[in-house]
Amino acid sequence: MKQKKLLTLIGSLCLILALVAIPFTACTPEEVTPTPPEEEEPTPPAEKSVVQIGWSETPQAGMNPFLARNEGDYLYLGLMYEPLCMPMMSGTVEPWIAKSWEYKPEESTWIFHLDERAKWSDGEPLTADDVKFTFETAYKYDFSLGATTEAFVDSIQAIDGHTVSFKMKEPSAAFLSLAGGTLIMPKHIWSEVDQVDEYPNPNPVGSGPFLFKEFVPRQYFIAVKNQDYWRGPAYIDEVVIRCYSNMEAAIMLMKRGEIDIMPDLSGQEALIPALQEDPAVNVVVDKWPHDFYLAVNFRSYPLNLLKVRQAMNVVIDRRAVIQNALGGYGEYPPLMGYVPPALSKWADTDLVWPYTDMSEEERVTEANAMLDDLGFKAGKDGIRVTDKGKKIEFRLRVMTWPSYIRAAEQVKKDLEKIGIECNILTSDPETLYGGIIYSGERTEDWDLLVHGSTVGTVDYIARDWAPEPPTSWCNGPAFGWENEETVSLMQASRREMDETKRLAIVKKWQKLFADELVVIMLGHRLHPAAYRTDRLTDWNPARINYVGALHPLGSIQNLLSVRPINK
User: Fold this and answer.
1) How much is the average pLDDT of 144-165?
2) How far apart are alpha carbons 317 and 325 in whole angstroms?
């Protein structure tokens, strides 16, 4: 009985399987071929938007912000690290990491209130402890980052997570802009570093809108967009800064569309017409707080004699320098007190170069008479000999920028007229400045230097020539210049809070500066820059003014604003 039931069950299963095996098309009245689903076209990846910036030198600080000391350092590092606030050329100060601040004169204390949104690129919050750590570390190591404010600060306190105070030893007229423009570092990263001054910072963690990707010294630097940037991400995906020792090559690359921004064409004025031929390139020129001058090594005899500097000052043809070297992109005649005309509130316009109405013959005669008075007689070859029996033959250093070389050639030509020989020696910017002039070795391997300084404020000038404490990157120590009266006035001008009294002090040290010919001013260059208009739009150049960094097209505000045209 059980066997019969089992056979019946097996039979039923076979019938079911047979029915399942019958094709479904057999049940339809006609043959139908199913249509396969349409394949979707693959979505092409979005094109990466890259801004290519052409620049003339690699950052002297590398990727270590504590070592930042010049405008080039801030161009690179300012993409990843940010200041408390943004000092501007206009004299205003804009909030950044700090959303507000106040000064309490009765307590001699500055208080900064940090934006609660600010955070580091690794997700950690940016706090008052980071600000305190940054300044105290800079002061401990005498880094240039803190040299602008160290002399004035007594103590720093993190009041709470987002409030930090600076107790002052004495008043500082420019403290807000100087402290505010200091790049802030993450304590949780740098407190673990043993040798801060030697740390290469291979994986930078910053609070800025871009993240480190790659850096090859003297070649290029790449940063990518920080999607989680606390102020909101940039419109561009990547910033590439390319370093060119040959700026003529960079100009040609810009004409080919391979460079989008050249933030500073100073020194390349002769190449500007080539850019102006391209309708997709916009060349902008504006008034600039810049001094273009012949610096002297005060350790070198006879340059340390005032009468020698006076003779040189008389004979150098300023019109020729501006026309031949700067392509006309300069202000004539120069002001000799070092404060450029662009700082109109402070500049003493009575200190103009006094030989504008003299002919070349008259200037040569007057300069020769000065050297004759010193007993410096011309030899058979026409080169004068000092009272110590040494030919007056100077090493004239200059970087490899066309306008600087042309200026050096003009100086050489004019000095030959009064029996002074110059040997022009050219070097790339990094070698010249980092390795010779500002090396910290107080080298005497130079006598004269064709140089330019961007000076955003009179306080910047004062701390450059009367630093507290001195650093190798201050002009006064680098050039071997010392003058107790002028230094005292410069330091006093940094402390005077009353603007009327401060102006009087500034004018006094300008007069002394001009009388002593601390530098031989050649002119005040205008600032040309260029950008392409065929790929990018919404330009918003901002004249940020920290450490003399006044290159609006490379400003972080501009790079946060600019966007590709197709977006």
Assistant:
1) 92
2) 11
Q: What's the confidence (pLDDT) of residue 248?
A: 85
Domain check: are 297 and 439 in the same one? yes
* Structure token digits, residue 78: 């300012």
pLDDT at 566: 77
> First-to-last CA distance in the chain?
83
Residue 508: per-residue pLDDT: 98
Tell me the C-alpha distance between 146 and 135, whole Å: 6
**Between 37 and 312, the higher pLDDT residue:** 312
Reference 182, options 302, 59, 53, 77; nearest CA is: 77
CB 523, CB 292: distance < 8 Å: yes
Contact 145, 65 (CB under 8 A): yes
Residue 82: the pLDDT is 95
66 domain-assigned: no
Closest CA to 527 of 349, 399, 342: 342
Q: Give me the pLDDT at residue 326, please.
A: 92
Report residue 337 as tokens: 């007190």
Closest CA to 301 of 188, 195, 387, 411: 387
Q: Give the whole-number percent of the chain exceeding pLDDT 70.
A: 91
Short-list 267, 288, 286, 284, CA closest to 341: 288
Is residue 402 a part of any domain in this protein? yes
Taking 70 as the threshold, does the pLDDT of residue 1 lie above it? no
User: How many domains in the chain?
Assistant: 3
Local confidence band at 412 (pLDDT 50, 70, 90 cut-offs): very high
Between CA 462 and CA 147 the distance in angstroms is: 12
Give yes or no for residue 170 having a pLDDT over 50: yes
371 by Cβ neighbours in 10 Å (0-12 / 13-18 / 19+) ranks as: buried
Q: What is the pTM of this model?
A: 0.79
Residue 15 counted as domain residue: no
Angle at alpha carbon of residue 517, lines to 514 and 523, rounded to 5° = 75
- What whole-number distance in Å separates Cα of residue 91 and Cα of residue 401? 31
Flag whether pLDDT at 231 surpasses 90: yes
pLDDT at position 470 is 79
Residues 502-533 as b/e (b if ≥16 CB within 10 A, e otherwise) read bbebbbbbbbbbbeebbbbbbbbbbbbbbbbe
CA dihedral 507, 304, 294, 350 (to 10 degrees): 20
CATH number at residue 220: 3.40.190.10
User: Quick one: 300 exposed, middle or buried, by C-beta within 10 A (0-12, 13-18, 19+)?
Assistant: middle
Distance, in Å, from the CA atom of 288 to the CA atom of 239, rounded to the nearest integer, reads: 26
What is the separation of C-alpha 556 from the centre of its chain, rounded to a whole number of angstroms?
12
How large is the C-alpha radius of gyration of the chain? 32
Helices (H), 24-113: 71-77
At residue 38, the pLDDT reads 53
Does position 37 have pLDDT exceeding 80, yes or no? no
pLDDT at 462: 93
Question: Do 430 and 520 reside in the same domain of the chain?
Answer: yes
Domain housing 312: 290-525
Distance CA 488, CA 485 (A): 5
